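Usage

Read records sequentially. Each one opens with the input sequence:
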Amino acid sequence: MAITTCIFDAYGTLFDVAAAARDAAAEPGGEALGAIWPRLAEDWRRKQLEYSWLRAVMRRHIDFWSVTRDALDWAMEAAGLDDPDLRERLLALYRELAAYPEVPEMLSALKAARLNTAILSNGSPEMLQGAVASAGIGALLDDVLSVESVGIFKPDARVYELVTTRFGCRRDEVLFVSSNGWDAAGAAAYGFVTAWVNRAGLPADRLDAAPQHVLSNLAEISEIAKR
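and closes with the structure output:
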């Protein structure tokens, strides 16, 4: 079955989640971050994901912006940072994360091939709208799908089902792309063709399902989708 629909995770896949801490460290007044911003960014992202999984298991859903704030608070305390102004600046920058450099050209190639394109993300609608607008990629996407419509985070199957419902397609017509190995595995278990963008060169997760494609960036996605 040919691919008709290309779906992308947002954070870490299209948008650089380390950009907020990196940019804050480079701004005047950001000296407190200095050499510790990579650790802060890593802790922030790790806790953001952990809190989403735990809340899904406990069935205590809150929106992803609240999860993001809670994760930052943990990361800042772990780094010994008690600075409300810095916290607000980091959150503001997170709403305007930069897209990875290859994203606009890759999405343009998919649209030129007449494929459906969309985001499927844990992010709340307001977060995603801000990131898409900041990156200037709204015209290259047919939709932006948020887990808020089902009230549970990925990798719950109800999240992936949003795609087949929205586009009226079969599962094996969907190419799902994520930088998160667990997310790619979850989508593969659901029945999507999946590509894991393994930017950090990490080992594969030991799960029952695995992505069919493993890439170092997004540049090859349009070729994979047209095979």
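Summary fields computed downstream for this record:
- The radius of gyration is 17 Å.
- The mean pLDDT is 96.
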